[in-house]
């Protein structure tokens, strides 16, 4: 951690002890540092503090809240090099990607700082004389979040920024594997003037215990979760007891489709960006490729050429495109998918080998068929299975044949086909001739078992607001 210039960002770190949680560098397997595990018995007390802080915060004007969030944004930008290094050290992604995530994460703070000023209500034409009707929007109260390790900053700011801008307090449990980025971001928020109890970050050895408390505590009025569909489903059930509002950003199985009328060079560029970013550990990344028969061989050949240029290694080294996977369980699972697909008849076009430590070669598998497990599951690794298709009807059926509905992508030069396919794909987001689609101004989220709720955009702040209807009589 010597490379970090602003030591304030690492204030949370502590010495090794029975209670401490070790944070590892997945590129080297070394322990970077330790963070405290907040005792389970103290978590309800922290929620009470958060509740008290929220009552004061909701009285502040949107302009006052905006000023603090803007300052937070400025400090994140000022510290972006340190934040990126912390992220690469604990998560493994290449430094340039980590810097990209810091800026992407910061963009949500900037956007929602302003959106907080625009949480308009409505006046409604009355159906009965003598009455005047209107709505106002009010913060839900204490908002809690549980976030994953693959985007340690952005998955937090996409929730914290709209919650705070709306007048909520925010309490988050980041993944135990990548907590340092979250604590560093919180330090900058406090420096910007945010009261400490308004933004609480906590970790505990048992994520299950934290989840139980978040779901059961009635003072938490909203739970926003990003992670696997399995855990999301469990949390929804648990939240039923307190009728808690939830947002769920869950798993994906994105199809990446290349039609015969596509610009193949562009499709290959989009495929590389979508598939291999973060070593394929991205909920929206291309998970399976469908390529029309006439251009199948050309696409596979050009993709293989582009993949051969990707450099695998420690994300801190210059020129590295693909870092390590997050842990050995993830690596074993990825290697298992490759081996199983090969046993079932898939052909390795490039890569396919397990490298030392947590590294895996970027891999292209051809002759993959719809029935193979590799097509049905979220891979979370640098593997590109490529499937043939003949026509649009067959393609739509195959692309929608999954429990997931987060992101999808297709390449075509035909405008009619573009509209037709975009409307038929059962996904919350569709990239058309584009492999990177997410930003702060557009609504991010899924359908089917990829979840519900939207992050970013004008919709993102509504997740943290209640609509109240006022009926004035006696006119
Ligand atoms: P995960 O196992 O569901 O974990 C996500 C978070 O939930 C972590 O903080 C984890 O804590 C915590 N957790 C695990 N079990 C829990 C439980 N029973 N109760 C309460 N909390 C619990 O998912 P992951 O493997 O970290 O992340 C990858 C998944 O996230 C993929 O499926 C990916 O598609 C999805 N994801 C979705 C989006 C989206 O926007 N839709 C974005 C990014 C990732 P610990 O890690 O500390 O144990």
From TrEMBL:
<dbReference type="InterPro" id="IPR010102">
    <property type="entry name" value="Succ_semiAld_DH"/>
</dbReference>
<feature type="domain" description="Aldehyde dehydrogenase">
    <location>
        <begin position="17"/>
        <end position="469"/>
    </location>
</feature>
<feature type="active site">
    <location>
        <position position="249"/>
    </location>
</feature>
<dbReference type="GO" id="GO:0102810">
    <property type="term" value="F:glutarate-semialdehyde dehydrogenase (NADP+) activity"/>
</dbReference>
<dbReference type="Pfam" id="PF00171">
    <property type="entry name" value="Aldedh"/>
</dbReference>
<dbReference type="GO" id="GO:0004777">
    <property type="term" value="F:succinate-semialdehyde dehydrogenase (NAD+) activity"/>
</dbReference>
<dbReference type="InterPro" id="IPR029510">
    <property type="entry name" value="Ald_DH_CS_GLU"/>
</dbReference>
<dbReference type="GO" id="GO:0009450">
    <property type="term" value="P:gamma-aminobutyric acid catabolic process"/>
</dbReference>
<dbReference type="InterPro" id="IPR016160">
    <property type="entry name" value="Ald_DH_CS_CYS"/>
</dbReference>
<keyword id="KW-0560">Oxidoreductase</keyword>
<dbReference type="InterPro" id="IPR015590">
    <property type="entry name" value="Aldehyde_DH_dom"/>
</dbReference>
<comment type="similarity">
    <text>Belongs to the aldehyde dehydrogenase family.</text>
</comment>
<dbReference type="InterPro" id="IPR016161">
    <property type="entry name" value="Ald_DH/histidinol_DH"/>
</dbReference>
<dbReference type="InterPro" id="IPR016163">
    <property type="entry name" value="Ald_DH_C"/>
</dbReference>
<protein>
    <submittedName>
        <fullName>Glutarate-semialdehyde dehydrogenase DavD</fullName>
        <ecNumber>1.2.1.20</ecNumber>
    </submittedName>
</protein>
<dbReference type="InterPro" id="IPR050740">
    <property type="entry name" value="Aldehyde_DH_Superfamily"/>
</dbReference>
<dbReference type="InterPro" id="IPR016162">
    <property type="entry name" value="Ald_DH_N"/>
</dbReference>
